[in-house]
Fold these 2 entries.
Entry 1:
Amino acid sequence: MCRWIAYRGETTALEHYVTEPAHSLISQSINALEATASVNGDGFGLGWYGEHPEPGLYREVRPAWSDENLRYLCRHLRSHLFFGHVRAATAGSPITRPNCHPFACGTWMFMHNGFVGNWSRLRRQVEALIPDQLYPARVGTTDSEAVFLAMMGAGIEHPVEAAEKTLARLTDFVNQNEPGDRLRFTAALSNGRDLYAFRYAVNDKANTLYYRESDNGIVVVSEPLDREHKNWVRVPEGHAVVALHDERARVVPLFHRHQVAAE
Amino acid sequence: MCRWIAYRGETTALEHYVTEPAHSLISQSINALEATASVNGDGFGLGWYGEHPEPGLYREVRPAWSDENLRYLCRHLRSHLFFGHVRAATAGSPITRPNCHPFACGTWMFMHNGFVGNWSRLRRQVEALIPDQLYPARVGTTDSEAVFLAMMGAGIEHPVEAAEKTLARLTDFVNQNEPGDRLRFTAALSNGRDLYAFRYAVNDKANTLYYRESDNGIVVVSEPLDREHKNWVRVPEGHAVVALHDERARVVPLFHRHQVAAE
Amino acid sequence: MCRWIAYRGETTALEHYVTEPAHSLISQSINALEATASVNGDGFGLGWYGEHPEPGLYREVRPAWSDENLRYLCRHLRSHLFFGHVRAATAGSPITRPNCHPFACGTWMFMHNGFVGNWSRLRRQVEALIPDQLYPARVGTTDSEAVFLAMMGAGIEHPVEAAEKTLARLTDFVNQNEPGDRLRFTAALSNGRDLYAFRYAVNDKANTLYYRESDNGIVVVSEPLDREHKNWVRVPEGHAVVALHDERARVVPLFHRHQVAAE
Amino acid sequence: MCRWIAYRGETTALEHYVTEPAHSLISQSINALEATASVNGDGFGLGWYGEHPEPGLYREVRPAWSDENLRYLCRHLRSHLFFGHVRAATAGSPITRPNCHPFACGTWMFMHNGFVGNWSRLRRQVEALIPDQLYPARVGTTDSEAVFLAMMGAGIEHPVEAAEKTLARLTDFVNQNEPGDRLRFTAALSNGRDLYAFRYAVNDKANTLYYRESDNGIVVVSEPLDREHKNWVRVPEGHAVVALHDERARVVPLFHRHQVAAE
């Protein structure tokens, strides 16, 4: 199980969120409070938007906690919208840079905490959702990248609808068998201007998703950056966070009709 | 364009072929005599058979010439059948360990110098040749690994026929367009007992293939390890080297009817 | 705090001790039972003796638990005397291959769990113990490598005396200030034939050291490989394990006069 | 022999100098026009100044030409003063990140193309030039880092004098033997505001040094970025380039009395 953080707001140095807080993403890479996998040492990644319309990426296979490059970059990179991710690999996906989050495709960026259960069986079906013209962008082998590219092909200009279409297909896939396979999808998506986050699961409990908003911006996380839990809004299962440019964030139900499971 | 060496014979330390000769594979990684790409610094790999029926692999994304681990391993690993490969990546395949040669699947091992032209267009067709039960073994994104797994699914117990079947499909694929795309396939394959090598091309000149045989064993290479060219048999295009256990190597035409192009 | 294992006995595949047991060194790299640092993800190393008089080394900066090369090597490498080490770096020593254990110098091999306290202050004094002719072997920057090379220069042909001489100097160094700096030294040393291990500390409690001996060989570890604690002999502080070729291991006090602290 | 570039001027994206030109630093990493070592694949580094008084560093052991992180960073990082360096390691210095240039110490940054001949013999003498309080900053093992830290201790607030003092000591060291050892020193140094470059050699020909200045800034390089040689000023041996903030660059002789060798 991975850990991630997404920020959108006033331009700031990444270090204020990625490396500095006592319970920053980097601290979480060694010891996550809520995660079931206590070590996230299987690579990490940063993605950020600057003046260029396409995001920058820094991804590395070493643990985040010992990467001196990461500390320099978090001190010097400033951005109004950035992602950070530390990975605990699921079996079967090798630790390579292209398998580290976030993923970029054109002006879009995506990262994920979760999995498509029974991936060996479902991989071909999920990859088939990727349109031909985007298939060259499939440079890794993770379920996460495949789901992102499927969303790209499902009409990404309407991100919530694209997520719903893709999640509906994935739900069908995992329910092909009896009992169904598990799906966990706690993800962030952005075009450099708007920020979206999703919390969804099938045949399983969803991974956590929180956010904290102020006049200066919004921080969306898989796990709170501090123990002041009252500062953090817990997003219910089957919901998305929509943080449009210059608007306050809204929490919207996925599929409009989704029944939130009792937690 | 990559460089490789395959050895089968008396058990020996790998260093005698991989790191020691003046024109060893490692020397070739910095400066190949015949190759068009003069630097093979995009990762490398060793594969070898020992007491375990499945081969061992050591693959690394750094250049071979500066890898201290490689020197230790070549001094200490002894084998009767081993492969070594240095890579010059073609555009589009990231430098990751799973994208480095050789590749292993069960008891089989494979490495390749060449490419499937227009890979972005043909990738899905080639990947579709991989049987479902072998698709989880697709841990990288190279054309080479996909072709290997396609061969595995085409009846690998008869390696020349499996190669012919797979190359026939690839030939169809590259000839779908007018003018046709290019295909270069100079590869080695083994089950730990028998050694096979192939030299083939479509719409292009094939990459070179040589071998040298003695009472002690056979060495098959993409490029001679020394300048004594008279010691090396040049394998013609459209042919395979078949070096069965305890037999002298034979050079056989692929497709029985293949017309060798004038070189 | 690091974790390590040393084996001397019948030639065996490394996997039986390094990767396979439920509480193998690799398992310990993610979750050590007794260690204070629960993650040993700051690089690792293997060292082994074969036919060549100098040991082979495989060292890598990535965590051991995700290194596919390590699994292949542990399956294929066979040795009568080998070391394995997983590292939790102390502040100030970067994660580089030359800073990973074990270290080799000529026919000797060494690894360490511990530290020289106040290393920034003492580093030059410790490095000054390394003889000029061995200083080129100082390829990293750790306290451990410096102590090893100091021992090499203190008459390594008599390993216990060399350790005592060096530890006496280190003890003087850490006691130069009031209160004294801390020193922890739990280390293994070999020439490919005999195996030595040491447990010592100044101004601090020593890191643990255990061994298990049978007719087939001896295993010395920083932490037992299984929970059958009765199988493991706990070595007292201020003592060395001397396992000469073809003899049963002996536990000898360091400095002959050392007072074992109550544990 | 390494290759490097230093820029000071209007704030710009690094890509315009590091990755984009036909003969950019990255192109040079595979094929240097004037260098004797034709491949610079032994790691690389970027250093840059931003809002923080200390420079940022990105250093990596893989070849620059295949590093996707580098391309993203060069597109997104903007700076008024930055260094780029590709390395061809000399024997004896392992390929580690701390051994990659540039080096940083406080607000100062340094990179080097050259060597201290007979480094195994002279290393201790050069390291002894580093003041105690700076010795913890010795995180690698290269001659270049040691010379930088020696300069730091020789009064770095007057950089040309500090270089002269240090080079005088080095000159004494290499001339201790008959015939003398060789020294090559073509280096860049900055405090984030002023840029200095040096070209010097003893018992050998100095590595090249060029610069190109316009109203927008100055570029100092080990080798011109294009074949328009008339645009580039060749710095004579035994001279320094002094490019103070808001002043035009000056070329000054080292030691005031230095005799420029005929080239």
Entry 2:
Amino acid sequence: MSKTIFYHAGCPVCISAEHDIINLVGSENVEIVNIGLDRSRIQEAEKAGVESVPALRTPNGNILHINFGASMADVKG
Amino acid sequence: MSKTIFYHAGCPVCISAEHDIINLVGSENVEIVNIGLDRSRIQEAEKAGVESVPALRTPNGNILHINFGASMADVKG
């Protein structure tokens, strides 16, 4: 099983999400990559399907983009 | 420590994210709430700060909205 990777770019939202993810998953289970600093990994992130940051690459290769999906207004209908 | 809660509304993206979250955190550590079906919990979710779904409420009360943040174009600058 591949490791979980958390891609971020150092913004306050990213850092806050990083702490939350580490608390949830455990620091030994997630690699933190700051693509704002380590720009050599931007291409890898894009190839994995990262379209925005922060994003979490799960062990099965899915990308969870963290921060905006369907609005509550849409859910309420 | 409060439990992690995953709020979603039954959409395909939500279900996919639900499986990923359960795999990462463990099903015993996260409560899954479908506010599309269990509409009585919409108010609780909004009070917790959920603005879109899928969203993850972490044990410390932070809300991670899953799906769109800063674009890669922004990161690249």
